[in-house]
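INPUT
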Amino acid sequence: MPVNRPLPPLPPRPARNMPAQPADMQLPDGVSRDMIMALAREVAAEMARSAQPAPAARPPSDARPARTDSRQSKPDARPMRFVYGAGAVAAMSVMAVGLVQPDFAATADQSGASDPTAEPNAVAQVPATTVQHVTQYIQLKPGETAPPGAKVIAANAPTPRIVVTHNAPSGQAAQPAARPAAPKPVTRQSGKRP
Amino acid sequence: MNEHAIDYQTVAHSTPSMGGTLSVFITAEPERIVQAQIDARRTVQRVETWAARLTRFNDASHLSYLNSAAESRVSVRPTLAAALHWAKTAQQRTDGVVDSTLLDARLAAESATALEPSPTPNGWTWQLLGTARDSIVERDPGVRIDLDGTAKGWIADRAADLLAHWPGVVVDADGDIALRADRGVEWLVDIADPRLAAEGVEPPPLATLKLRGGTSWTASYGVATSGTSVHHWQLADGRLTHHLIDRRTRQPAQTDVVQATVIAPSAREAEMIAKSAVILGSHEALGFLARSAALAAILLLEDNSVVSLPGVEAWLA
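OUTPUT
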């Protein structure tokens, strides 16, 4: 089981923005360079003690170890990592959009799909894709009403239909010239033929 | 209707069946013509299966089993039960003129050399009990059933129902015809002339009927012809007699109607009405036809006159 161990204290850093002192700087009277250096060492030692975490109390055997607050006082070694991570995610998203691009052309022209007069199973050509228009016919029963937007075709509306005639005399009905005459049933008395 | 292109084709499949010829015609679009041929062939096979169950000329048929059973209550299979149900309905709708219990009288007439009293009395009854899947025939002892007068039209209708998805269908059960015509489809049906049939050549028809689909719906028709001039024989005294038994005398009907052709909403109704018209004779037949479900009727009488119901011109080609 992992245990949080406190990191060793960092050495004190010199102030970056302080101007370098000239070597021949004049000291006040009664203050020697040794005194200043001794005071600086004491201040550095005090700062090191305050940065060092307090010794953790021994946790009871059935309790979790006490959480230390050493991280809050630790400076972030990589302060830009969140920025870099966000940038990486954005880059991956851009690449994913480029690889899996939706077929916008397939949905570009859907006006014919809602046209009830369109021919069933007609195919409209769209660049790089094919859209199949299917007209669904619903026969309304007495008392039923058409759904909103549906085009109602009257029952007696003419539709292309074919006439089949059998051995009809010429002039009564159109017959293809090359087609043989269709069989004509005969009703007769059943039973043995004489 | 000449403005429409003729794109339908007709397929036909015929085979000897039921003592005559069974034919199935289907009109179909050219791209479906192969499927139409398959359906026509399958329908013919189905019809032969039904006919084999209902015939009295095969001892293994369901009808023969019923007629040979000694019990008064006999369980029957669904196909026979349905055909019996229609036979009972036809008997009720014709006030008993079409009677399926006249088998013994018919057999006696066919084997006799002279007209003799029937060996079986009148008044025998039978009834169909139960459901379509579990039916029982209850009858007086000795009653035997004959479906010759009702089964062909019933079979033709049933076969046409199997083909209802095609634009045009004709099921010709040896002269008893069931037709279906979609809008724009038209069938022409010849009526055979029995007076010229003996000459051995194809005679001109007595008339040609024109049956077309409705203006916006599929129309169903039945056309049937019955008569005394084909199935007949000569007695010892030289007189001709026939197979249509009058239940009132239990002997071949004394009628002046040589042939009756009827158009009705179904083949089974057309068969029932045509047979009744012949048995009743022209005097009673015209009144019966007017009350019946006949859409049109053409009677050929023994004096060579042709009588029809009013309005028959609309059905002639």
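end of record. Chain B touches chain A through 55 residues (CB under 8 Å).
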